[in-house]
Specification:
Length: about 700
């Protein structure tokens, strides 16, 4: 019975399938589905071909050669050349300056049909399809001609995708139409990467063999060609055995391609690779952090990264090379900075110098340690860090003066709570007085008077004042704690330098910028900075604020950071860690004269219980003092139009700080001790570094 049922079921399925097939046949004959499908596929192919052809024809293929031969030059504030920007460019040489030993090795290895193909190779594409099937849809690369590789390296990203591969093929065809095979091979060899930071066959020849590309032997030429597969794996400096093995394979491929006899190949295999480095970088990127910031600003201003790197522009910046060199020198003195964490992690730091009259950035160092191309620049880009008391002059004391208070107005310093949330600020030293004058509270960075003043003038008044200086607090940060830097709003040294420029510039807020203008190879201005200063406070308020902030360096919280022989105004700021009273997360300082504003910061990239500022080593004040003592002698040394508020108060008989009680005495003792300790750290650190250098460590 079961057997009969199975036969019946099978017969039923056959009838159903036959009927369906018959029905599909009728539909196909009536509506011509196969033809429509073929037409749809052909239409899609035609549309994609038209799209990629259009992209290829509008891709500035004609500019590839000139872009490889030219470098963008940066000029400083005095229009003197300061360096060059370039991407993947070495010393460009023509094909007759490149040994045939290299040319033949590269063609035999990378593209045997180079002189006959149309920019792409059908066999290579089919191999790529086979690899795609073998690797289950994963694009593994390979199968590209020299022309395709040139297109990828100069016009496309390194991302592997079907669309990018299609673009590569169509661009290769266009390149093949525009340039001769000689030009294509020349551009490829000058653009190829050979490891160890060297681009182009000429510089690679000097880096590995100490000679020009025109002098390379068969074995040396094969060695360079071998590196193209994987420069890190096949370069003879790091992996001599891999380099020799791959070299010998390349020599055999040259024999197969007819570029060399077997006897010559065998002779080349027996030669020893003698390494010699005569390569010298042109050191065009002398100020990497500054140049990176220029690139970032150019992109923000509408100039693409590719254009700024490859089109031979002239970029006129606001750089002061002397200031930059002095700042760079400071950052080489490790003893001036906080000690490393127990695991060796280096404390980070950043500084920026700004012209208060124009907002032009004169110098910048964005981080300590090895430079990373367009990596995190703490001077211009960090966020989420508390700026500490650096906000007090901007959010509290400036609007207080504008509200009718004066530099010598008495402010409450009694321990107390504020607002509906009973916010209770504390003074760092734990000492409280009944009251103190504003200039003393600011200079010594006393917390309670600042919060009391902000509460008196109104929180919103302080928020609005801060916004005038270019710092807009997040909604969650709009509370009285912001007076002490209790914020998560993005605030950078650049933003603080800009804000404090207002005090140095008679109440006018400038726009910070690195670029004055960008000019292309034809002389056309591609970008022009048209930023203007904006008056946000009166000259009298700016002057009064400066007089109070001179005290910060004369006798206040920045006394140990005062540059010797110079009058500087400004403010310090710290943010404490939560697990101990003897550690900081961040340290800040902003100092200015009428000629320059410098803002500096230090802290760990990631703060936790094993990575925080313990007080060991240097502080933000020690390296700020050093960089200012390098920079200020090279300024116009313009004097302030005011003097220290404390001295003004004494001359008018309103100063009562001399008999203000134990709190003030204790503060003076602390300041004196701190200054002595910082001086000792700097001196001892210099000795230690000197001893290390004697032993080559």
């Amino acid at each position: 019975m079961k057997f009969v049922d199975r036969q019946q079921i099978g017969a039923w399925f056959k009838r159903v399938l036959a009927n369906m097939w018959h029905w599909l046949g009728r539909i196909q004959r009536r509506f011509q589905l196969v033809r429509w499908f073929i037409l749809l596929v052909l239409t899609l192919v035609l549309a994609l071909s038209a799209y990629f052809t259009y992209q290829a024809k509008t891709a500035n293929v004609e500019n590839i050669k000139s872009s490889l031969q030219t470098k963008t030059t940066l000029y400083d504030e005095d229009n003197k050349a300061a360096g060059t920007l370039y991407a993947q460019k070495g010393t460009y040489v023509e094909l007759d300056k490149i040994s045939p030993n290299v040319q033949n090795a590269v063609i035999s290895t990378e593209d045997r049909t180079f002189y006959s193909n149309l920019g792409f190779d059908i066999k290579g594409i089919l191999r790529s399809v086979v690899n795609l099937i073998i690797h289950r849809g994963v694009i593994t690369g390979g199968g590209s001609t020299l022309t395709q590789q040139l297109a990828k390296n100069t016009l496309l990203t390194q991302k592997q995708s079907f669309a990018r591969k299609a673009q590569e093929i169509f661009l290769a065809v266009q390149i093949n139409k525009v340039y001769s095979k000689k030009d294509i091979l020349t551009m490829y060899l000058n653009n190829a990467y050979f490891g160890n930071g060297v681009w182009g066959v000429e510089d690679a020849s000097k880096r590995y063999f100490g000679k020009s590309a025109s002098e390379l032997t068969a074995g040396e030429g094969a060695t360079l060609a071998a590196m193209l597969r994987s420069p890190s794996f096949y370069n003879p400096i790091d992996h001599m055995d891999h380099a020799i093995s791959r070299r010998n394979l390349v020599l055999d491929l040259e024999v197969e391609a007819g570029h060399m006899t077997q006897a010559d190949a065998n002779a080349a295999k027996k030669t020893t690779l003698t390494l010699r480095n005569t390569y010298q970088s042109d050191n065009g990127n002398k100020y990497p952090d500054y140049f990176d910031a220029v690139i970032s600003e150019a992109i923000k201003d509408g100039v693409s990264e590719n254009d700024i790197l490859n089109k031979g522009y002239k970029v006129y910046t606001t750089l002061n090379q002397t200031y930059q060199q002095k700042m760079d020198n400071t950052f080489q003195k490790s003893w001036l900075f906080p000690a490393n964490a127990a695991d060796g992690t280096q404390a980070q730091a950043a500084s920026i110098a700004v012209d208060p009259k124009t907002g032009g950035v004169l110098a910048v160092v964005g981080a300590r340690g090895k430079h990373v191309y367009r990596g995190l620049n703490y001077a211009t880009s960090m966020s989420g860090r508390s700026p500490g008391s650096t906000l007090k002059p901007l959010m509290v004391y400036t609007p207080a003066l504008e509200s009718g208070m004066h530099y010598d107005s008495e402010l409450s310093d009694e321990q107390q709570s504020f607002g509906k949330d009973n916010y209770t600020p504390t003074n760092v030293n734990g000492v409280y007085q009944k009251s103190m004058p504003m200039y003393q509270a600011l200079a010594n960075s006393v917390n309670v008077p600042a919060v009391w003043t902000l509460n008196k003038i109104g929180l919103q008044t302080g928020i609005n004042s801060l916004a005038k200086f270019g710092i807009n607090l997040n909604k969650s940060d709009q509370n009285l704690a912001a007076a002490l830097g209790g914020t998560s709003t993005k605030i950078t040294p650049e933003m603080l330098a800009r804000a404090y420029s207002t005090f140095a510039n008679g109440g006018k807020l400038p726009e910070t910028h690195f670029i004055r203008k960008i000019v292309d190879a034809t002389g056309t201005v591609v970008y022009q900075d048209n930023s203007e200063n904006k008056t946000i406070i009166s000259k009298s308020v700016a002057k009064e604020m400066t007089s109070m902030m001179i005290g910060t360096f004369n006798y206040g919280s920045a006394m140990s950071g005062k540059p010797s022989g110079f009058t500087v105004a400004g403010k310090t700021g710290t943010s404490q860690v939560s697990w101990t009273n003897a550690g900081q997360k961040d340290e800040w300082i902003v100092g200015y004269t009428p000629d320059v504003v410098v803002a500096s910061w230090t802290g760990f990239a990631y703060t936790n219980k094993t990575h925080y500022l313990t007080g060991a080593g240097g502080t933000v004040k020690t390296f700020f003092k050093d960089e200012m003592e390098g920079i200020l002698p090279n300024t116009a040394q313009t004097s302030f139009n005011t003097s220290d508020a404390q001295s003004i108060a004494r001359s008018t008989g309103t100063d009562n700080t001399g008999s203000s009680g134990d709190g003030d005495v204790w503060q003076n003792v602390q300041d004196s001790v701190e200054k002595g300790v910082e001086s000792a750290k700097t001196t001892i650190g210099g000795w230690v570094d000197g001893i290390k250098s004697m032993f080559g460590n």
